[in-house]
Amino acid sequence: MEQLVRFEPGLMIWTWITFFIVMGILARKAWGPMIEALDKRQADIRTALDAADRARAESEQLETKYQEQLQASRKEGQKVLNDARAAAEKLRIELEEAARKKSADLVAKARDQIVVERDQALREIRATVVDLSLSIAGKVVERNLTTQDNRKLVEESLRQIGEA
After folding, report:
1. DSSP states of 106-148 as a string?
2. What are the per-10-residue average pLDDT scores of the chain (164 residues)?
3. Which of 1, 18, 54, 72 is most solvent-facing, going by the fewest CB within 10 Å?
4. Is residue 3 part of a domain?
5. Domain assignment of residue 81, yes or no
């Protein structure tokens, strides 16, 4: 057991030399590539985080833009709806007015036609009354007056009655 605890300077020097050689080999062959891989991985993670931050910021911008467009579309839709309602109300009023006007025109035409037909009926009645009166007067007077004189007399009488 003493051999293990004993101090040997040659062994110690060779141990140190071996240690530094292994450290040099490890530094070149293992740690360098490992550190490069870790640095590359760190850079990739940093790039991915930056890309995620950019994507998040862009997503927030797009969401804000979408909300603005949605609100503008809602306003536009409400405006179109209000315009359509106003146009429908205007059309309804115009149609009602046109119907009233047409109804008034029809009533006026009907009144005019009634007046014309009434006047025509009165003329026919007068003509019939004149003929009847002439025939009655002719029988009563029996040739005291001419037929033309009788007709004038009856027409004057009817005019006086019509004016009264």
Report:
1. HHHHHHHHHHHHHHHHHHHHHHHHHHHHHHHHHHHHSSSS-HH
2. 70 92 87 86 95 94 93 93 93 93 92 90 81 68 64 75 63
3. 1
4. no
5. yes
